[in-house]
Design brief:
The complex is a heterotrimer of chains A (587), B (267) and C (220). Chain A has 17 helices and four strands. With 587 residues, chain A is mainly α. Chain C contains five helices and no strands. The chains are: A mainly alpha (587), B alpha+beta (267), C mainly alpha (220). Chains A and B meet through α4, β1, α9, α11 and α12 of A and α1, α2, α3 and β7 of B.
């Protein structure tokens, strides 16, 4: 058929165009997922090094001395290297794993298919976003190899520590600048990605796919994109200002009269709190960017294995929108003790507590969905159920921190570390695991091993509780975070509990090798997957595994049903596919 | 598999909750005038969120146990009442709890951070730097000398950058690395940062506050029991952050007076 | 289109059969009458996000100005006002061209953009380049007065605002070049959607500049 030239719907030609510089959202999605996989392995190894050092600070780590002769001479991590590892761990995990995998990875692959489109609205911009993200990752990792190493100011990079340059400490020279450049690039990439997600959702839905019939994962990606659009738009100029303070002699964040390394700093007039406000205005919505796709994925997958529709779909969407909106009003809860006006602490604490309500609602909707279900305990289902459990645990500790009076005691302690790891490092990860096990057959055309998957689930589920629940106890005892060693009188008695956590962490980390092996083995040699192994209803299951380059073989589906019509009686069994022309809504 | 999930969740829930309740790891004894309000807020939150934690995990466990697919042709059933009980539960119960905690908690917070300090407070100037705390008493004239960052000289112990040669009020300032304070007397600290962000944290005093370069931040409290406790830094400040500590020594008034006299003689 | 009647020769009504709209504008079953235009949606989203970035910088500026006494007011180079006129003029020429092209009936007949409209677009480009050049010259004028990026917070924000805006204007110029390349006379009656989107972006750049001019003129 005669068509405008250079159309993205023509099949790609050549190896590079097909597998490397691909415009196909499916390839781009897999590229993001592979990047996130490399990132999470890196981040995990960093955390093992950190935990080992905390438990046995004087014990040399075999081989580390050769890898990092300055940071770990003789295999023993120096205090500055510990902080550098910590900074890179946080940065890599938050940006290159938790924002990349559930959102850019799965979202890119499945959003167009789930709305019935042939590709994203702007495939070339989509490809650009991935490559910019990859460059951002490489720039960040380069900090390990240049100057005096990676920055030590944490993923939060508070000024003036992050802004004055190398006087502030090792890694605060080139390393910190690379960090800021990397994050700036990452922001640009995510903004371009959000552009694609939103436009595709609004404009490219197939016939019959009204907003009300969109899968919950699509809704979550859509709402996450909107959050990201505003959040990353604030972080980017903040990082630019930080870079200028570092290299151009400006004073956005640096006040006068600072004496660092015996040198009076030449800056004046800047405000460290300004950085914190800008950063957390991004930073709090960012954590919802990390978790909302998980909400969507769990809401999408749970009905499949419960064989019944999600309880309260409209309430779910309304709650997600409420959470997204509220996420912009709470950033000051990271700053209760920062020196900002104490009255604003109360102001910020109110919406922070109010967010509990829609978060509770969505949790109850999942639990209510399981009621009366006919649960199939596959690996993705287990990770969804596990998600609910760990999200409850993580959410509840937030309830404490939301109150400024209690935060007076718990701020800066391991209670905070336990809280955010439960919601981000565990719950969001469980969302990624659930999505991987669920969608692997579709993406790779091969089935993952259920046996290995279940072993992975059980060891991980028990393991993460052993790692992160004890951190709340440490926090209640006043154990300060971001310490490379525990030399204070009152902290020394906590070391045995730290050793328990370290052993659990190394054990749980080892269990992830089961997942890695399963993933690699499946992609190479897994048994062929049918089009719809889970008997699911959404549009990705109406096409082949894996889908053809234009998703539906040139025949866009027409949608007649909602996304979770499970539990009734139909020709297919107890479900009706969205694209099925069979009439009647299943109960 | 569902039954296994239920058992594991219940075990985890009960063990975690038991450890919380047992107070094996818990807040140290409170020696501050305002701390009991914080402790009460914490305990109340622990009780309600503990209940919420246990109940939701149990619900998850019970449903996972009961509602596995036994291949018996049973039809799925919707949650009784549908979505309404969920919304009502969340809005009413959680909402009420939030209201209560905010109402009480904001008063507790305001009492510590928004209330003006007692006019009879003992005033002590505190400087945080990479990687130590220094404390300055005004001396016999009751006035602090002005600080000049360009005069700071670690080697000679001029941590605050005082100019005693030209500034008479600075001559009798007492600069020490330990925070000595009298018991049952309001203390007003003024926090200043020499280089980067730091923080002042004494768990036993239930008090914490960041030092921010460019700002001078007041912090006041009253210690209600004698003893020696650690002051630790909780705001990442560089490689020595883990080792940045000082001690607060709460003494009886006569002991404090003696201590201060001795420190003054050492200046 | 009915088939030919035997024995009667019908002159060709159109050079090629009508082509359905590209799949990127697939019809939906919603009540919206016109097909969605992804390029326009994308530009609106871009406008939102760019606006948010400048909002963040605005609040940073307000905080910085009120937080310390070192603001140091200075006079904006009057060249900026000339540049403003140039930019507004370019918006005018762009809009004029856009309407001329949009007025060509769609769906039937080949698409030949009128020469005047095309020229209007080239003039827009020229004005745009003139604006950017003018901005760089204004920077040089400030530098000659000793006002650099690090001299004072006021000059710092001036440079950051104008540079960031300038970068986005250059991006807009790139978009206009791309649109011009698609506006060759073709036999296809498919209307190029990107012109409307590019115009929207360009007008936003002009509007954003007006906003920046006001806050800079009143604050630096």
């Amino acid at each position: 058929m005669t068509q405008t030239t250079a159309h993205h719907h023509a099949p790609p030609q050549g190896f590079l165009r097909t597998h490397v510089f691909s415009l196909d959202h499916k390839v781009i999605g897999k590229q993001y997922l592979d990047l996130a996989l490399v990132a999470v392995c890196t981040g995990m190894v960093l955390s093992w090094l950190m935990r080992f050092h905390l438990a046995w600070p004087e014990t040399p780590i075999p081989g580390l001395g050769r890898v990092s002769p300055t940071g770990a001479a003789g295999g023993v991590i120096t205090p500055e290297y510990y902080l550098a590892l910590m900074t890179m761990h946080g940065t890599i995990m938050v940006f290159f794993v938790l924002t990349t995998a559930p959102f850019a990875g799965f979202g890119n692959y499945f959003l167009p298919i789930q709305v019935g489109a042939e590709d994203m609205a702007f495939p070339r911009i989509n490809m650009t976003s991935f490559w910019v993200t990859l460059v951002a990752f490489l720039v960040l990792v380069a900090a390990f190899f240049v100057g005096d190493g990676p920055p030590l100011s944490g993923w939060t990079a508070y000024a003036p520590l992050s802004a004055v340059g190398k006087d502030a400490g090792p890694g605060q020279g080139v390393g910190q600048t690379l960090w800021a450049v990397s994050i700036t690039l990452f922001c640009v990439a995510q903004l371009l990605g959000a552009l694609n997600f939103i436009t595709t959702t609004l404009d490219l839905r197939t016939k019959g796919m009204s907003l009300a019939r969109m899968p919950y994962s699509t809704w979550a990606w859509f709402i996450t994109s909107v959050i990201g659009l505003i959040a990353f738009a604030v972080l980017m100029p903040a990082c630019i200002l930080l870079i200028l303070d570092r290299v151009a002699g400006t004073s956005f964040f640096i006040p006068s009269g600072l004496v660092i390394s015996d040198r009076l700093q030449p800056h004046s007039g800047g405000s460290p709190l300004l950085w914190q406000h800008l950063f957390w205005f991004f930073g709090h919505p960012e954590v919802y960017i990390a978790i909302l796709p998980g909400f969507g994925i769990v809401s999408h997958i749970l009905p499949v294995f419960a064989r019944k529709p999600l309880l309260g779909p409209r309430v779910l969407i309304a709650s997600l929108v409420a959470i997204a909106f509220l996420s912009y009003t709470v950033w000051g809860h990271h700053m209760f003790l920062s020196g900002m006006n104490p009255f604003s602490a109360t102001l910020f604490s109110v919406p922070t507590l109010i967010i509990t309500i829609p978060a509770t609602i969505v949790t109850l909707l999942w639990i209510g969905t399981i009621y009366g279900a006919r649960l199939r305990f596959t690996t993705p289902a287990l990770f969804c159920l596990g998600f609910v459990s760990v999200f409850v645990s993580g959410g509840i500790s937030g309830f404490f921190l939301a109150q400024p009076s209690i935060d007076t005691y718990l701020h800066g302690t391991y209670f905070v570390v336990g809280h955010f790891h439960f919601v981000m490092g565990v719950a969001a990860m469980f969302g990624i695991f659930a999505g991987t096990y669920f969608w692997a057959p579709k993406m790779f055309g091969r089935l993952m091993s259920e046996t290995l998957g279940k072993w992975h689930f059980w060891l991980t589920f028990i393991g993460v509780y052993c790692v992160f629940m004890p951190m709340h106890y440490l926090g209640l005892a006043g154990n300060v975070r971001r310490y490379s060693a525990f030399t204070d009188d009152y902290l020394k008695p906590m070391i045995p509990l730290h050793r328990f956590i370290t052993i659990a962490a190394l054990f749980t980390g080892a269990a992830q090798l089961i997942f890695l092996f399963n993933l690699v083995w499946t992609r190479l040699r897994g048994p062929k997957a049918p089009d719809n192994p889970w008997e699911a209803t959404t549009l990705e299951w109406s096409t082949t595994s894996p889908p053809p380059f234009d998703n539906f073989g040139g025949r866009p589906p027409v949608v007649h049903h909602g996304p979770d019509e499970y539990g009734g009686n139909s020709a297919a069994g107890d479900y009706v596919m969205q694209a099925s022309s069979e009439s009647g809504r299943v109960a | 598999m569902g039954k296994l999930f239920a058992v594991v969740v219940v075990l985890i829930t009960l063990v975690s909750a038991a450890i919380f309740a047992s107070h094996i790891w818990w807040l140290p004894v409170d020696i501050s005038a305002h701390g009991h309000a914080i402790d009460r807020q914490l305990t109340e939150t622990m009780a309600t969120s503990g209940a919420l934690f246990v109940l939701s995990q149990l619900a998850l466990a019970v449903f996972a146990w009961r509602y596995g697919d036994r291949k018996d042709g049973r039809k799925v059933t919707a949650f009784p009442g549908g979505v309404t009980p969920m919304v009502v539960l969340a809005v009413v119960l959680v909402g009420a709890e939030i209201l209560a905690l905010t109402f009480v908690g904001s008063k507790v917070w305001a009492g510590i951070y928004q209330a003006p300090p007692d006019p009879n407070s003992l005033q002590i100037d505190v400087q945080a730097e990479q990687f130590a705390f220094y404390f300055r008493y005004p001396g016999a004239d009751g006035r602090f000398g002005s600080v000049h960052p360009e005069r700071i000289d670690e080697a000679s112990g001029n941590f605050f950058g005082l100019d005693p040669a030209n500034d008479t009020t600075a001559r009798d300032d007492i600069v020490v690395p330990t925070l000595g304070i009298p018991v049952n007397r309001p203390v007003l600290l003024t926090l200043r940062a020499k280089d980067v962000n730091h923080a002042f944290y004494v768990p036993e005093l239930r008090i914490q506050q960041d030092f921010v370069p460019g700002l001078v931040i007041p912090l006041h409290f009253t210690a209600t029991d004698t003893g020696k406790h650690e002051i630790v830094c909780t705001q990442l400040c560089g490689l020595g952050h883990y080792n940045m500590r000082a001690y607060v020594e709460v003494m009886s008034q006569p002991q404090f007076d003696q201590w201060l006299k001795e420190r003054a003689a050492e200046q | 289109m009915s088939g030919p009647v035997p024995g009667v020769a019908f002159p060709p009504l159109r050079p090629s059969p009508p082509v359905p709209p590209p799949p990127s504008a697939m019809p939906r079953t919603t009540t919206q009458p016109s097909p969605p235009q992804p390029a326009r949606t994308g530009i609106w989203i871009a406008i939102g996000t760019i606006g948010m970035s400048f909002a963040a910088l605005t609040s940073a500026m307000v905080v910085r100005q009120s937080g310390a006494a070192d603001w140091r007011h200075f006079q904006l180079p009057s060249l900026l006002y000339v540049n403003t006129v140039v930019l507004l003029a370019s918006s005018g020429t762009l809009e004029w061209s856009r309407r001329r092209i949009a007025a060509i009936p769609g769906g039937t007949g080949s698409f030949v953009p009128p020469l005047q409209a095309l020229s209007g677009l080239y003039i827009t480009l020229a004005f745009g380049l003139l604006f950017v050049t003018g901005q760089v010259i204004a920077w040089r004028q400030l530098a000659a007065q000793g006002l650099f990026l690090a001299t004072a917070p006021s000059s710092a924000f001036f440079y950051v605002f104008t540079a960031l805006h300038g970068v986005h204007v250059v991006g807009g110029l790139g978009g206009l070049v791309y649109v011009l390349s698609r506006l060759r006379p073709t036999v296809s009656p498919v209307r190029p959607a990107p012109l409307g989107a590019a115009a929207l972006y360009w007008h936003f750049m002009a509007g954003l500049w007006l906003y920046l001019l006001v806050i800079l003129a009143t604050r630096v």
